[in-house]
Amino acid sequence: MIANPLLRRATFSELFGLLGLPPIKGTSCPCPFHEDKNPSCSVFIGANGHEIAKCFKGCFCGDVYDMYARAFRCDRKTALMELNHKLGIAIATFQLDRPLHERFQPAPKSTQRDERLRPSLSLGLGDNRMVVDLSTLRRIHEGGVRLALERGLLGFGDYMGRPAWVMKDRSGMLMQARRLDGRTWFRDTKAITLKGSDANHLLGVQEAAEADLLFVCEGGPDMLAAHALVHEMALLKAADPLRIAVTGLMGASMRPRRATLAGLKAKRVVIWSHADEAGRDGAKEWKRCFWSKDRTVDIIAADEILAGLKDLNDVVSAEGGLAAIIKKLMEVRHG
Ligand SMILES: [Zn+2]
Description:
By secondary structure, the protein is an alpha/beta fold. The protein has helices at residues 12-18, 64-71, 76-86, 100-103, 128-138, 142-150, 220-235, 258-261, 277-290, 302-305, 312-317, 321-334, and strands at 28-29, 41-45, 51-55, 61-62, 154-159, 162-167, 176-179, 191-193, 213-218, 244-249, 268-273, 296-301. The protein has two domains: 12-89, no CATH class; 97-335, Dna Topoisomerase Vi A Subunit, Chain: A, domain 2.
């Protein structure tokens, strides 16, 4: 397991809430595992910096995941997955032995752009509040937002005096900012591509070099939704998250540069098309750009998954949407 500052741990307070037990007052509480009139369970910070609970009758000593495992009669690994999922904590990296971004080797550099021409904005990982706000705004699981942060495809910053979420990648060739409060920058402008950006850059292309399955999305909201999908597939053990990369073009009229695609070994490409004319036309063009002998390229439009919906974000946030997408992915693969 890796120590990842983006991933917080569950707390005993949260677990007690989940188990329907009275809240913990101070540092002791009734032991959940024996009939306990006087609080004989103590909660303290252990030597490793994590919360530990210990019953002085000797029936339990361990951390919050040990307690969950005991309460639900499962193993610790299952406890990690389930409890974190119930609390909206990202789980994807708990199974990893090293951080995701190190597993994705950069593709060979193509044309070198002048550093001075690149977009610039000071970006950070944000705080827990921002992660929650963005996941609420986009109606997706927090784990998806954290996964995008962790992979370096999302950052938080201030733009024109407003808190913003920004899609970007390691190359620094393209940054696109949207307001964290969900409002427009001015008139109908929801997203601003920062000055100096290469609008046709495929975001995340370097990070995707080692993946087997490559998602291509239109726009930032769908890129985030795709991360929520990867997170869900990892949770269901439907796929190894390390083998799936998320990339995106910031509009249907953009075209990925063939030279930058040369470094991609991806065998399977899935284009998540918007269900509108521009989206469908764009997806067809993208398919041509991505096509090569060693790749399969499929287009899946939002309304082929759930009728009436426009984009991947709509489907991911719809009831039953994630399950419908995973089913559709299987059909397309075997169809
Ligand atoms: Zn006890």
